[in-house]
Write a structure and sequence with these properties.
single chain; mainly beta; Ferric Hydroxamate Uptake Protein, Chain A, domain 1; two-stranded antiparallel sheet
């Protein structure tokens, strides 16, 4: 299952953070819009720091999945 990121997140950086693609090699991802969460807990994963947020005001969110080639 993919990770959920807020709408204003960079898709590429969110995919690297989730481990779906690597920053060095890149790749293809599938993005699915989903309802936003009330709370996002920040973390450092794969060299990308995500922010903690409470009740984000902007739009929806998205879920990222790896695309097999």
């Amino acid at each position: 299952m993919g990770m959920v990121a807020k709408q204003s997140s960079s898709i590429c950086k969110a995919a690297v953070h989730a481990g779906v693609i690597s920053d060095e090699r890149g790749g293809f991802v599938d993005v699915m819009p989903v309802e936003k969460k009330k709370i996002y807990v920040g973390s450092l994963k794969n060299g990308v720091q995500s922010d903690s947020l409470k009740n984000p005001s902007d739009g929806n969110a998205f879920r990222i999945f790896a695309v097999k080639q």
